[in-house]
Design goal:
The structure is a homodimer of 172-residue chains.
Chain A (H helix, E strand, L loop, with lengths): L9 H9 L4 H11 L4 H7 L6 H13 L3 E5 L7 E5 L1 H4 L2 H14 L4 H30 L12 H21 L1
Antiparallel strand pairs in A: 1-2
Helix pairs in contact in A: 6-7, 7-8
The structure holds a DNA duplex (30 and 30 nucleotides).
DNA sequence: GCAACCAGTTTGAAAATGAAACCAGTTTTA
DNA sequence: TAAAACTGGTTTCATTTTCAAACTGGTTGC
């Protein structure tokens, strides 16, 4: 059960878990897109992941404890994938990666609005987002004091607003 | 000069640049280990990178503008690799990845002390580290008001202190 | 009963990775 | 001054990973 690891360095070990071309993209879709089923992740994937690669990544991320898999009671064949606490705590990593990518790489406006808002919100917003994810993915009890859309829904609304504005501008 | 990219999403684009098993490890050694020459990166690599893979990664990171390459005036054959501003600004990403890896993966104490201190120091320490890297890698003028070891040296000293303590404990 | 949907698996070709040997020129050492 | 060691890599070939497409066995809705 011990060391197949290249080293005990936290950077290296993290790279061993999510250092490939697809893992973070799949986790992004689960976290920000609320995609929880295989077909949702497959057909909704903006980057066009292949089904065998998706199956492999879901298997690996599950075995690493970053996500978990459960039967969907509504359908005998449906499996529902959820972020674990370990996966949820990748939120700050996504925030930093999103900020760096937005600053230095050729992002499109509509796809970087979420990253922009998440960076601007800082640690308090990340905490709120993680708390929402615990409710959605872990079944944690929702905070009775809060109301209105959760963080993911707000980010999604901002994305849609940009798309609508672009479509408006394009029409004219 | 346009889209060979899978999408314009900042997460995806970042993954396209550093989403493999070696790029972040090489950048880590440059940033935290101050390894600037090919042989230093090759022989000093804790994880044992192969020379052809190292050559390929240095080429790719250079073409992405994350690092740069220059002749070393002290030796006709020596090349010196430096972080660019784009590379230096990965410091917060490393800080978050290091924190996550330290919390959730089987790190060793001596190799996670740097990540721990960097996380505890927060954004002010990251800023200071980045300013030091600009001096070391970009030739920026050093702040005349500061003195003593720079951030990298302090992290290195902390690492060595842990190793020394372990060696002490082991001897008894 | 049949079409659409479910989570994947299979197949075979292309690309990436990895270990080891190797290279030509440069600098250091005896 | 000749040999040894060092410089940044390249070459070779075997193994592993990726990828697209076709396919599978079962489930659900109409």
């Amino acid at each position: 059960m011990q060391d197949q690891h290249r080293s005990g360095c936290p950077i290296n070990l993290t790279v061993e878990v999510v250092g490939d071309k697809w893992s973070l993209v799949v986790l992004r879709d689960m976290m920000f897109g609320n995609r929880r089923h295989f077909r949702e992740l497959l057909n909704g994937s903006m980057e066009g992941i292949a089904s065998n690669i998706l199956a492999d990544r879901l298997r690996r991320l599950t075995s690493e404890g970053v996500i978990s898999k459960a039967d969907d009671p509504s359908h005998k064949q449906k499996a529902i994938y959820s972020l674990t606490e370990k996966g949820i705590e990748l939120v700050p990593v996504f925030a930093m990666i999103g900020a760096w990518g937005s600053k230095w790489l050729p992002v499109t406006e509509e796809l970087s609005i979420r990253a922009k808002l998440l960076a601007e919100g800082g640690p308090p917003l990340w905490e709120e987002f993680m708390e929402d994810l615990r409710v959605t993915h872990l079944g944690a009890p929702p905070d009775p004091d809060r109301s209105g859309p959760d963080v993911r829904e707000r980010l999604q609304a901002a994305y849609e607003a940009v798309v609508a504005r672009q479509s408006e501008a394009h029409r004219s």
